[in-house]
Design brief:
By secondary structure, this protein is of the alpha+beta class. The radius of gyration is 14 Å and the shape is globular. Bound molecules: adenosine-3',5'-cyclic-monophosphate.
Length: 140
Amino acid sequence: MAIERTFSIIKPDATRRNLTGKVVAKFEDAGLRVIASKRIQMSREQAEGFYAVHKERPFFGELVDFMISEPVIVQVLEGENAIAKNREVMGATNPADADAGTIRKEFALSIGENTVHGSDAANTAAEEIKFFFADAELVG
Ligand code: CMP
């Protein structure tokens, strides 16, 4: 199995409820290592750029407003099959569909306020990491 890196955001619903440690514990318990982490207040421009792929979706405005409503924690996670493993630990986008024990099942409030974002593929992981981190900030 390959050692991979993936990008994660702990979203405003989690920072607001002081759940960031519980979310990180889920990553670490699954064997993912946090190799970069920073708490930021995302700007509207950043949120619109990061989620540009969803620009035409009806929920785009709501998504951007939510992502800039409170601070977020952007992170790089490293481990064996990190991209798929992180998606497993997060659970389905809609918490109503998420498996027991996943982050979204335990913590998410709705499909919009769903606690975490995680990259969906190797190419998006690389792009998303670059969007928020310089190479020198990744300390594996
Ligand atoms: P995320 O993994 O961050 O990628 C895009 C986000 O859009 C997704 O998680 C959800 O939080 C959000 N999203 C997807 N579908 C909807 C929806 N129907 N209504 C509101 N937000 C949505």
